[in-house]
Amino acid sequence: MTPPTHLDGARVLAWAWSDLPFGHVASEVGTAPIAIHGLAVCQYAGEARVYRFSCDARWDTLQDEVYASEDEARAQLPAQYRAVAASWNQV
To answer: What pLDDT digit, counting tens, does each position of 50-76 carry?
Structure first.
């Protein structure tokens, strides 16, 4: 599933999608863990750094991490998101 052009106000530079989850994140309310189906490298206007967003099946952002470069953001996926190999698509 292709993401929107922007997530949380940041422009999508690259993305990966999997029908099987890349991994899971804990729910903020203590319910069952939430599956991560979308990963996106994004950049806010006027910023040099980029963010790797971890998204649910509707491309809602659940977690983010900041990186110095797009390559770094793609290469440094946490172990929790390696259940399925990410195949990145450049925008």
So the answer is: 999 999 999 999 999 999 999 999 999
Residue 57, token pair as written in the block: 């099946």
Helices and strands in the chain: count of H runs, count of E runs = 1, 8
Q: Quick one: which of 52, 51, 18 has its CA closest to 36?
A: 18
Under 8 Å between Cβ of 74 and 58: no
Does 52 map to a domain? yes
CB 84 within 8 A of CB 19: no
Where in the sequence is the domain holding 15, given as residue range(s)? 6-84
Give the number of domains in the chain: 1
pTM assigned to the model = 0.94
